[in-house]
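anyone seen this seq b4? input:
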Amino acid sequence: MRVSRRTVIQAAATGIAAAGFPSIVRGQQLNSKLDVAFIGCGGRGGSNLQEISACGVNVVALCDVNKNNLDAAAHRFPTAATFRDFRKFYDEFKAFDAVAVSTCEHTHAFATMPALKMKKHVYCEKPLTHNIWETRQIRHAAASAGVATQMGTQIHAGSNYRRVVELVQGGVIGNVRECHVWVERAWGLQSPEAAKKNGDIVYVAERPREAQTPPPYLDWELWLGPVPERPYNEVYFPGPKWYRWWDFGNGTMSDLGSHWNDLPFWALKLDAPHSVEAEGGPAHPEIAPATMLARYEYGQRGSLPPVSLTFYQGEMKPKRWTDKEIPQWGSGVLFVGDKGMVLSDYFNHVLLPEKQFAGFTTPAPTIPESVGHHQEWVNACINGTPTTCNFEYAGKLTEANHLGNVAFRAGEKLIWDSAKLRVSNTRSADHFIHRTYRKGWHL
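predicted toks r here
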């Protein structure tokens, strides 16, 4: 099933939101309109600007390294202050209550952390950060700030996910000890033929050595941010070309994993995995894989039994899919319980085997309807009501997704010590958990 970002956003805006996540909001209660600054105004930033501004907030500041994006946003909101460098924005502009961050993945943490230190409310696009260490820092900072936070997993506000969560947590398919998540997108390192077949934006196997002149509207140095300096090349920009490159993104896993692994994370009450191993590839020091799988093992969670979760991207699929035991959905989530199965995508789900559940009466919904993913955050900023993808929940999801990539890059099964933020059985993964930043950049 191919779903456009526009469709996802529209579905989220009219969908319903989950209950059951604790609010960490203890911040300022506002009685007037929320004053919101936007860091990143094109692409996802443009969508977030449209959605959040429609929630009745004041757009007070705009920031983007791309002058075309900035000018377009400023035309819509002519009274907003404008900036190219978000560091300068934070230094010079103080009259805001909240900030929406929609930069590229490698600068998410750097655009988010100053707001948390200032105890401002934050909405940040997925994935929350570029690596595991950054995620943990943002989680801790958000908990300390006590403000309203939300990660941009818009589909979390849709109705279908809630119905699936109710079925799984309601015991309709019994105890779940096995879950499979697969996505058909295959952007990453692949042959030219495969790239063409899979709709990859650009094929390249190595980092380009030649320098090209950046477009006149782009501040390349600011776009690079904390990443070690390299010359501009069209293989990195515009997006989403950049997310194939390890220095800037984490490939399909951190992008689509944020949406698709969200469902089992929620339904199965997952936290930190005990172990993870990955395969696929081939592995490359510069570019994320087009095809891979990551297998997580989670332990007992209260009364819930241990469960294995496997994520597949590109040409890898679960055995039940390849054996045609289940419907051949292009992307999906399959919960395997001891009394049956649930197969879901963004907007549909089915109980399997279908003959077994013929005549099944769907129970009345227990998770209340949502006001919309963005409105939920705005309401939390003003009233202190809960958000469902706050940085505590979303941070744990992001850490797990990144850990799958770390296992792939390390080439070993990893035993994860979440409390110590380290892999306990090998040192080969350490430099993928945290990295050194360019001079002048620090969290």
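Residues 391-410 form the longest helix (20 residues). The domain at 159-191+250-368+397-429 is CATH 3.30.360 (Dihydrodipicolinate Reductase; domain 2). kinda curious what u guys think
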